[in-house]
Fold this sequence. Notes:
With 368 residues, this protein is mainly α. The chain has 2 domains: 43-194, no CATH class; 209-368, no CATH class. It has 11 helices and no strands. The protein has helices at 15-43, 45-68, 74-123, 133-147, 149-158, 160-193, 197-239, 244-254, 261-277, 279-305, 313-350. The protein is globular, with a radius of gyration of 27 Å.
Amino acid sequence: MIRRPVRPTGPQVGPGLQKTAGYAWRLLVLAAALYLVLIVLGRLVLPVVAVFVALVITSLLRPVADLLARLLPRTLAVAVTVVGAVLLVAGVLALLGESVASEWDSLVNEFRGGTGRIERWLEGAPFHVKPGSATQLQNKLSSYLSTHRASLVNTAVNQAGKVVEVFTGAFLSLFCSIFFVHSGDRMWAWAQRQLPRGSRATTDRAGRAAWRTFAGYTRGIIIVAASNAVLVGIALLVLQVPLVAPLVVLEFFATLIPLIGSPIAMVIAAVVALAARGPLTAVIVLGLIVVIGQIEGHVLHPLVLSWAVRIHPVVVALSVIAGGILAGVIGAVVAVPLVSVVWSVIGELRGDDHGDDRGGRPAPAGPP
Length: 368
């Protein structure tokens, strides 16, 4: 006697719902894992940021060290490269300090006169601010500072630990970058040997793609930031805006935050121009935001970054906003290179060829 299979009599789940449920629980697992990773990284901000900065330094100094290593021993080439970079940064900081010190007296006088011009401008059309409002606001601010001086001093003292953390992170970054520049390929090979044999090839491909994208993005964004800074410096010199050197450096570092960094730096420059040179110069500086933004978006980014980063501007904007919400300024800076690296690794593991044939360049030896 042949028994027929018993068919379920209750309601059945369709294949579409089953597939959706399968994706849903996988996404929940990934979200939980990502949440745990963010918690761990939040507790280890200092070493994580230090390693990130060390990788940035390595991407910039490694080509120079490799070039010098053709003429000098590897250790000496790395020493010359690192010492030269440190002296360059120290020279830039000294130049900024000298620039501010030399312009300080004239800048104070210009700001005093500029404050009067701003008050008269606000009293006219279309603002019609009551005369003396700015003076009253200044008096209230002075009174507040005098009243809360003790609490402000205590806050400043409490923040002194942040300065120690910054110097500690800078030293750790420099320390790690020296080893990354000197023997990063050997460190990567050692890490590969610690993995199971079956996963070494895949991990090596992913690591090479990640480093290629990260190094390309870092070098490209530095070129874009330097170009923006030069354009801003020339414009401010022509407009005779004071503090050109500090504003140029501010523009350089602000450009490292895509989309929003450069406009914020230009707004600060416009405030300086408003106080020192008047409303017309400030309006011209604000107009530079549009001009430089167009040059950056339609000329510099396509020429410099298109070969290294291939993500849509909408993804860039969402990444910057999400990074800023999750981790402040650090998150906004790290978001785009992180998303670019993840996308590059996914493309490499998926079998795409766009990461290996960029202009016929040979692949690097390995991270870093």
